[in-house]
Design brief:
By secondary structure, the chain is mostly helical. It has six helices and no strands.
């Protein structure tokens, strides 16, 4: 019995360590985009074409995530034929800023070319 309790505590502790290392972006954005089959890279490139810079892109995406609408989406009309509009985010401002910072760092082109 002690061995089972010990192993259970080890697994719970290991799970907590792994979840602490994942970012807000991974827990919220990546998991949802994977489920829906929507490429984060493609979304990033669409947003970059529209907003043309880090500051504008983060502000535009933050506004969209707070107030989603087809008019403010970076996805084309064909996207909405197969996907529904997302619900407004429940992340706090600081969590949303951290997620957008991670998104920018992962998918930006400048500095990531090899």
């Amino acid at each position: 019995m002690r061995r089972i309790v010990f192993l259970l505590l080890v697994f719970i502790g290991f799970g907590m360590i792994l979840s602490a290392k994942t970012t807000i972006f991974d827990r919220n954005c990546v998991s949802c985009h994977r489920r829906k089959g929507v490429s984060l890279r493609r979304t990033f490139m669409n947003a970059l074409l529209i907003y043309s810079g880090e500051k504008n892109m983060k502000a535009g995406l933050k506004y969209f995530l707070r107030h989603p609408s087809k008019e403010t989406s970076v996805m084309g009309e064909e996207y909405f034929r197969t996907h529904r509009l997302k619900a407004p985010t429940t992340l706090t401002d600081s969590e949303l800023d951290a997620a957008l910072d991670t998104y920018w760092q992962r998918y930006k082109v400048i500095g990531n070319l090899r």
